[in-house]
Design a protein that fits this description.
CATH superfamily: Amino acid/polyamine transporter I
Helix content: over 70%
CATH topology: Amino acid/polyamine transporter I
CATH class: Mainly Alpha
Number of domains: 1
Order of helices and strands: HHHHHHHHHHHHHHHHHHH
Mean pLDDT: 80
Strand content: under 5%
Number of strands: 0
Radius of gyration: 21 Å
């Protein structure tokens, strides 16, 4: 029997509806974080090192949340996108530095995403340009014909296909004892291991994620009263994305990494054959394709929109999905140009797996720039009571220094042999 007031009886449904209204930017950007390059990096990690990089996936969960929560805070309490806030706080020079780094990272991301679509095409015996062109056409249609909320819903639906990797991991029958043993083995003296450490760190925090989430929060019109729900949105997304990465790693560790099969990972087709042996040819290929297409499409939406938003914020041209293309030609033109460049590049680049790992290593090298801007904005641009200060500032600074330093050290050591 309900003995409370009518207002009390409505409290829980209202809280749920408020959370659902806010849900989106964090979950979308986190699903995009598990993009094609990240999936391939996790697969290579399991194939080459078994479960030795599984602990890293878990350790990166709070680091990912810490960084992206700061973008939520900046977007909600300033109402401005990342590029615009850098321009107003630090000046045009640093705004252009940030958006240049964004453009480099977004170009690499788009190459990764379209490489996944190309690989799925080849998986079904079709020329690679078929999947790439279909994907590019779909991405252009989704953005040109929709508002922010509509684009967000489509991105969420596409991203949910990534959950098939949990089924693949379960079907690979991992050995719990081998998994536990691998968690304690960290061969830091090996260059190949360090390369994948750098790639995995680079696969977690990318410039286009920061730009996208802060701009999406502003474009969606989230307000200070939405902050608590937006943090939960980001926390749930952080957990899901790293669990997907762990699932892919476990699947390859249980098959290739265990020595049960010997398959080269030079193409997306070989990767599919390696991690879906227990599902049969048809279902293995179908399930893997859904996961790769979902990962590639949601990340391509996020990376290209982040670039268009970023340049719009720095230069001052109109930059919102709420505008018709005729009202914001530079915004949609930038989006289309990035999309076209990625489409053409992937059609002619042969080694798609190596390309993806190289992109993630590049992201690790860009990490100090990304986190550095975030910390400065967190100290200088946020209102009193919400800015980074005291003990939490030190926590953020230490985590940023350690993750950035490890990423750079691993990348340089693995590439130079120093």
């Amino acid at each position: 029997m309900n003995t409370g007031t009518p207002e009390a009886s409505l409290q829980t449904p209202l809280r749920k509806s408020a959370f659902l209204a806010v849900l989106g930017p964090g979950l979308v950007v986190m699903l995009a974080d598990t993009e094609v390059g990240s999936v391939i990096t996790a697969a290579q990690s399991g194939a080459l090192w078994g479960y030795r990089l599984l602990l890293l996936q878990i350790v990166l969960i709070p680091i990912l949340y810490l960084v992206q929560e700061l973008t939520v805070r900046l977007g909600i309490f300033t109402g401005k996108g990342h590029g615009e806030l850098i321009r107003e706080t630090l000046g045009p020079f640093w705004a252009y530095v940030s958006v240049t780094g964004l453009s480099v990272a977004s170009a690499g991301a788009l190459l990764s995403e379209f490489s996944g679509l190309a690989g799925v095409s080849e998986l079904y015996g079709l020329p690679r340009f078929v999947g790439v062109l279909l994907g590019a056409a779909a991405l252009m249609t989704i953005v040109v014909t929709g508002s922010y909320r509509r684009v967000e819903r489509i991105a969420l639906i596409l991203g949910l296909f990534e959950l098939v990797f949990f089924g693949i991991a379960w079907a690979s029958h991992p050995d719990p004892a081998a998994m536990a043993a691998g968690l304690g083995q960290v061969p830091f003296a090996d260059r190949g291991y360090l390369l994948l450490v750098a790639a995995n760190i680079g696969a977690v925090i990318m410039p286009w994620m920061v730009f996208y989430q802060q701009s999406a929060v502003a474009d969606k019109g989230l307000r200070p009263e939405d902050y608590r729900h937006a943090r939960w949105d980001t926390a749930i997304g952080s957990l899901i994305t790293q669990m997907v990465m762990a699932a892919v790693l476990v699947a390859t560790a249980a098959t290739i990494g265990s020595g049960k099969t010997s398959v080269s990972l030079d193409t997306v087709q070989q990767l599919s054959e390696a991690i879906t042996p227990f599902l049969g040819d048809f279902w293995g290929k179908t399930v893997f394709s859904l996961g790769i297409v979902g990962a590639g499409m949601v990340a391509a939406i996020v990376a290209t929109l982040a670039t268009a938003w970023g340049w719009g914020e720095v230069t001052g041209f109109r930059h919102s999905l709420e505008y018709h293309p005729r009202e914001a030609p530079w915004f949609y033109g930038t989006y289309a140009a990035v999309l076209l460049g990625g489409t053409l590049a992937v059609v002619f680049i042969p080694d798609l797996v190596s390309l993806n790992i190289g992109v993630e290593v590049m992201n690790a090298l860009l990490l100090p720039l990304v986190i550095g801007f975030l910390i400065v904005l967190g100290v200088r641009a946020l209102p009193e009571g919400h800015r980074l200060q005291g003990g939490y500032l030190w926590v953020v600074a230490v985590v940023a220094a350690v993750s950035s330093g490890l990423g750079i050290y691993s990348a340089i050591t693995s590439l130079t042999g120093l």
